[in-house]
Write a structure and sequence with these properties.
The chain is built from 12 helices and 12 strands. The chain is of the alpha/beta class. The strands form 2 sheets. It has an 8-stranded parallel beta sheet with strand order 1-8-7-6-5-4-3-2. It has a 4-stranded antiparallel beta sheet with strand order 10-9-11-12, with no helix packed on it. Helix 2 links the parallel strand 2 and strand 3. Helix 6 runs parallel beside helix 8. The longest helix is centred in the middle third of the chain and has 22 residues.
Amino acid sequence: MSRNNDLLFGIQEVCIYPKAITNIKSRSQCNPYINDKLPLFTAPMTSVIDDKTYKVFEENKINVIIPRTVKIEDRVKFIDKYFVAMGLDEAEEFSKNNFEKLNSLSSINILIDISNGHMKKLINLIKDLKRLFRNKISIMCGNIANPMTFKYLSEAGADYIRVGIGAGCGCITASNTGIFYPMGSLIYECRKIQEKMEESYLINNTAKPAKIIADGGMKNFDYIIKALYLGADYVMCGRLFSQCWESPGEIWYKEKSELDIHQSWKLLGNHTDQTNIEFRPDLYDYKKIFYGMATKRAQNEMAGASHTVKNIKTSEGITKELPILNTVEGWVENFKSYLTSAMSYTDC
């Protein structure tokens, strides 16, 4: 246990004030892309993305992660193009058993997807993978809720670190364990460490710092923009993308004129059946089921996808109904507009 006497703050407590005088005449002058992609990652969640729906996110310039609930043999087909999520033991075993095949690829992208990114075993695995594959491999890891852990994982060789525990829509870790670090302060403190490491890297050729991925609790466009303002390189979204028409899961609908909200819902179909179904939010209300990756349902799916027998742990995730509000394309257009507008206000 530790106690921090400094005043900590969450994303919701942040406001961005405009620069006194700006040189930007129009938001069209602002570039919201990093290497032709938006500063966004899909959360590696069953309710968000799978090996069939990833294309719509790719087409809309969102960074893709293939989640652990996709069968391992299907998941690894994407490993040279997108980040592929694996458990800690799964990543260790797969890399050792498939060294020759992996080493023949031009690039390897692995997310070591665990809830507790503070384990020494994770640091050791990152070092081992970097020793085996050197600069050919890009490693994402996390999640963390201690700024110093960002430094240790960066020094081990992590390229991207997911910061944030307990803030996600489908997560109840904070409310049941007390483990939490307010997201605003966490991003800001990790950014200060990142800047010091970057300076040392350029001057003394020490360890290069990882990129910061703010993960969890992004309720709206402004939360994403504030996370970037505080120092996140990228933001990971779960619920916001799950509420898009194209994301995986069963879709339920009812006519807007129907007043009985409990009895009028009808099953429309699964996302894989949507090819001939038109999204008509003017006529219908839609909803789907969203569940955290720490739920027992998700734990069972991950065990089946990796062909392992696992002891199912006490759930630190929840299941809830969410309204479907947007298409991915429509959401992205709005995001780009709001982000570039914020950039113009702050003269970025």
